[in-house]
Amino acid sequence: MTEAVHVIDRFMRTNHLPHIWCPGCGNGIVINALIRAIDNAKLKKEEVVVAAGIGCSGRAAGYLNFCGFQPTHGRAIPFGTGVKIANPDLKVIVITGDGDCTSIGGNHFIHAARRNIDLTVIVFNNSNYGMTGGQYSPTTPLGAKTSTSPYGHIEDSFDICELAKTAGATYIARSSTYHIVLTIRYLEKAIKHKGFSVVEVICACPTLFGRFNKLGDATQMMLQQKEQAIQFKKAQKMSSEDLKDKIIIGELYENIQKPEYTDAYQKVIDKAQKEEN
Amino acid sequence: MVKKTVRIMTGNDACSEAAIVAGCRFFAGYPITPASEIAEVCSQLLPKVGGKFIQMEDEIGSMGAIIGASLAGTKSMTATSGPGFSLMQENLGVAVICEIPCVVVDVMRVGPSSGIATTPSQGDFMQSRWGTHGDHPIIVLVPSTVREVYDLTIRAFNLAEKYRTPVILLSDAVIGHMSEKIEIPDNSEIEIVNRKKPTVSIKKYLPYSTDESKVPQMASFGDGYIWYTTSIIHDETGFPATAEPKTATQLIDRLHEKIEDNLEDIIQVEKYLIDDADIVLIACGSVARSAHSAVDKAREEGIKVGLLRPLTLWPFPENEIIKNKKDKKLFIVCEMNRRQIYHKVKEVVGGNLPVKYVNEYNGKLITPQEILSKIEEEI
Lengths: 277, 379
Prior knowledge:
The structure holds two protein chains of two kinds.
Chain A lengths: L2 H9 L15 H14 L7 E5 L7 H4 L3 E4 L5 H11 L4 E7 H7 L1 H10 L3 E7 L2 E2 L5 E2 L23 H8 L3 E6 L3 H13 L4 E6 L3 H7 L5 H11 E3 H4 L11 E8 L6 H16 L1
Parallel strand pairs in A: 1-2, 1-3, 3-4, 4-8, 7-8, 9-10
Antiparallel strand pairs in A: 5-6, 7-10
Helix pairs in contact in A: 2-8, 5-6, 6-7
Chain B lengths: L4 E6 H12 L3 E4 L6 H10 L6 E4 L3 H13 L4 E5 L1 H16 L4 E9 L5 E5 L4 H6 L8 E3 L4 H18 L2 E7 H5 L1 E6 L43 E3 L14 H16 L2 H4 L2 E4 L6 E4 L3 H15 L4 E6 L1 E3 L3 H6 L6 E6 L4 H10 L5 E5 L8 H11 L1
Parallel strand pairs in B: 2-3, 2-4, 4-5, 5-8, 7-8, 12-13, 12-15, 15-16
Antiparallel strand pairs in B: 1-9, 5-6, 7-14, 11-13
Helix pairs in contact in B: 1-2, 1-6, 3-4, 10-13
């Protein structure tokens, strides 16, 4: 038995496959990376809880063989917050999409980042709402065509990683489904990080976003990820003009000094109980 | 001899303290008048017993967080008022369909929308029943005194655990902020119910398989059982099963039946001078206090009036009304809203008996005199 089969056997509910995603969708690549990262981080499956949002990415939780749940659209972070505070020994991983995380769930995302609660948030960013038919999301680029921007999108998009950094997240990385080795590495680091960690993975949606914008098939969209990617260190030396239409990948931010929420709350308990005695 | 403690406390304080006695170890909430004191007291008391408190970014998050904590095995509660209760409806549905025990306190104020923040109302009677979308059962308890806030908060946790359902405690601005002298029962006298844990092995555990109780055993995230739940219609494995209409029917029916099969256990009503009464008042919460006085005043005048007071508003105590309608001449429904329960009472009483009403929905309490005037007008 090869190593790969072994990881899949342990961490995936193979009886729930095949998955529901379209041919060429990047989501499968991301969960593949995730189970390898969990394995590299040497976590036992009993220690992991996966909370997922609603949307294409949200279905990933059901294929993963951990305790998991899929509540309401955009709310996986507050549900995960409750799990984590109730049992800080658990590793809570939130699976979410660009719309789920930064539109309907945007408020939860920034406040969880501000608290620096130990959740690992994986954002499957495919630039649109795939599950509902390819409408524009907060990460749809200006000018792009979607099923609700047939004349071209007129809104600016969010930079999810910048948003997370400004809000207070303490480990932030961006990768793509093309950069699978990096994705595994960043996810492992995010999982091991004590604090609010965010890994944004650029993910192709050839069926909708790709088709609406004539980006070619899945392979061509992944090659575009390769062509557009600029490593963070290199990007720091480039002008904003040169960075236009580029995707900055890499470990964008890390802060191991800021106290983590459940640790800080344990100090509250200690203080309250000391005063009581 | 069992030790009894006598204290003066507000309804909101009683709610927080009783929650901790009931075993609540997690509170998530968002500030709102007239419920904020429940959060404040929880933030002070919970860490002393090793519990946790968090002020979330909004009521949607608060409701989500208490469900998450309950999934991890911790009894949990949130408290709010109308505007926040509206925001909680979305995730309240998750607690219903995923069968996650939790307690939601709504200290009612005048609505709609921001309404009047500081004055009492019973405008959420129907929202507590039908606020979240889709067919669902719900248990709603309505206290009339500070002592009852204490008792019903504990009962809310017990029912939530026993039936794996969210339970709503409907207080109001008067009950929440009013101070009363109450006798706090000793903890040894209080029954505490905990959810049924799995009795089967980890390998054999099916999170939504049930016995005749129709209430599934609940593992906690982190205790070794690997299980999954979703707000999507699911089968006994907990995974989505939307292709087969039968699965949806079975789930939705079972959610209702686990409550409907146990109405005697769940429904509490108080009857005051009902037996010989010609006229029956129906009132609950703070309005029942005025109705109680109105009964006494009417009796002084020789008018035979009684009071039927639901402590459980939902499921609605239909049988209690039907049982007590014999030989009665009139029902009068007194409520601080624009006739929400009146229509329910009319439906239950049927066409043969008149049902009248006394209402205020402007922040003014209904006085005993107003009810007495209505009684005098009708005889």
